[in-house]
């Protein structure tokens, strides 16, 4: 069996490899999945992404499939239930932020028709295709992620700093930061 050369961060863990090969950097336009990624990226703050990926299915159950309509209605009892759930990241500030972010997310949907339309407008609906040759060629944030972060914060979002937003942009394919030699890079995908 031929070994695929992946971006260095994908490592040997099957969860990481699957995420790298099938999700990261591929354009995502489903509002509920965009909401999921926004919340998970915020949950990752200060932790390794593998920690979030390993808890992802538990998060999906605990957060009602990341339905922003349901999450926006969470009250104190649900917060306490989530804080007691050992299958997720139990951080009160992050959980509270997820609830507030769901409310702000719904406001954007109301204003723009979809969160997808709102967020993808920052890149004119077309992914930014970068050509890094190593991890050193990938920034932690950019002026665009700074701008999106600032705009989201002004709308009441939390845990949406520029680094988190850049990671979100990479995750949902607004930016393709696969190594130029990686088979998952936009220029190479037809070879996978």
Structure in words:
With 192 residues, the protein is mostly helical. The protein has one domain (28-191): Endonuclease III, domain 1 (Orthogonal Bundle), CATH 1.10.340.30. The chain has helices at residues 14-22, 31-44, 49-62, 68-71, 76-83, 92-112, 115-120, 143-154, 162-171, and strands at 128-129, 175-176. A two-stranded parallel ribbon has the order 1-2. Helix 2 crosses helix 3 (49-62), helix 2 runs antiparallel to helix 6 (92-112) and helix 8 packs across helix 9 (162-171). The radius of gyration is 17 Å and the shape is globular. The mean pLDDT is 94.
Quick structural overview:
With 192 residues, the chain is mainly α. It has helices at 14-22, 31-44, 49-62, 68-71, 76-83, 92-112, 115-120, 143-154, 162-171, and strands at residues 128-129, 175-176.
Q: Would you tell me the overall average pLDDT? A: 94
The percentage helix is 40-55%
CATH topology type: Endonuclease III, domain 1
Order of helices and strands: HHHHHHHEHHE
**How much of the polypeptide forms β-strand, as a percent range?**
under 5%
Oligomer status: single chain
Number of helices: 9
CATH class value: Mainly Alpha
Main-sheet strand order equals: 1-2
Calculate Rg over CA atoms.
Answer: 17 Å
CATH homologous superfamily - what is it? Hypothetical protein, domain 2
Indicate the overall shape.
Answer: globular
Structural class: mainly alpha
Q: Which segments are poorly predicted (pLDDT under 50) over 5 or more consecutive residues? A: none
């Amino acid at each position: 069996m031929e070994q695929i050369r992946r971006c260095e961060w994908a490592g040997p863990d099957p969860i990481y490899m699957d995420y790298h090969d099938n999700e990261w950097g591929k354009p995502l336009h489903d509002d509920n999945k965009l909401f999921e990624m926004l919340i998970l990226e915020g949950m990752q703050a200060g932790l390794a992404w593998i920690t979030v990926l390993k808890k992802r299915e538990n998060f999906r159950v605990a957060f009602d499939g990341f339905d922003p309509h349901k999450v926006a209605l969470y009250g104190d009892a649900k917060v306490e239930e989530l804080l007691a759930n050992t299958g997720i990241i139990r951080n009160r500030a992050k959980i509270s932020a997820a609830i507030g972010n769901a409310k702000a997310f719904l406001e954007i949907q109301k204003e723009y028709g979809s969160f997808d339309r709102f967020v993808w407008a920052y890149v004119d609906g077309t992914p930014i295709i970068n050509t890094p040759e190593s991890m050193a060629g990938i920034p932690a944030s950019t002026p665009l992620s700074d701008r999106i972060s600032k705009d989201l914060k002004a709308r009441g979002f939390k845990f949406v700093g520029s680094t988190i937003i850049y990671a979100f942009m990479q995750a949902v394919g607004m930016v393709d930061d696969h190594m130029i030699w990686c088979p998952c890079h936009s220029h190479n995908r037809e070879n996978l």
